[in-house]
Amino acid sequence: MFARLSMIALSVMIAPIAVSAQTEGPQAQGISMEEWAQYCERWDKWDKPAPPFRIHGNTYYVGTCGISSILILGAGEHILIDSGTEKGAETVLRNINTLGVDQREIKFLTYSHEHFDHVGGHALVQEATGASVMARKQIAPVFETGVVLPNDPQAGMHKPMKPVRMGLTLDSLKGLAVSGLSIRAIETPGHSPGAMTWYWKSCDKQEGREICKSIIYADSLSPVSADDYQFSDHPKYLEEYRKGIARVAAIECDILITPHPSHSNMVRRAATGTFEGGMSCREYAAGKMRDLDKRLAKEAAEASP
Ligand SMILES: [Zn+2]
Known about the structure:
The protein is α/β, with parallel strands linked by helices. About 25% of the residues lie in helices and about 20% in strands. The protein binds zinc ion.
């Protein structure tokens, strides 16, 4: 199976890449984006089921109302980003079925960040699909043990997840490729040490014309931690955190989607019938930088007598 994996050689992170083959759409399309917006609340429960819908071209939302899970179709081989919570993963699998996509064709299961609300369902999805779980080498123990790394700002806050069998671990995860599809990975640590942002181009045929959009699945990037954790105690971690935010800000994205739909107003934007507009990558990143600065200011204020 690993022979199918090809790393994408990357010198420039921000230029869009073409989908190398036109893919057949699934048999069903799920509901419309506007219907999904009716179905879900702006800040919804993580495990509330919702039907799947198409975001653009080969890219589908198969998550719950409160946690995203993104299915990107290649030519008979597909990539799934995030499985949701252990419970939410049942919805994810059902949604893949609803679309008429063969679960066994999901080759890679990857993630946004290694917390239970996004990868707690990995074990269930792996069991059902046989997908190869991908992660950077340093994060592999989180999947293998179900426990976050000691340097995670949220270490000690979550109960362990079901362990997962690792597919392939790489020092640096630059991207993933399957037949007819390649996606880029951008390291955006901060919310968790292994947090990733994903970026790809998706094309759609509309009235004979090909409409291509660059899609970004940007990680949460929010400075949330255990009570006794101070971001200001970890200058190196902070430096990487800021670099990740800057990488997101530098991307020209047509469509922004996020692991928590609420972080980028996905329900409100879906109501317009498109995720285009409403929030740019630059605006999203700027908001995250403000949140981080606010958090650091709070830590400084608490530290001063
Ligand atoms: Zn989360």
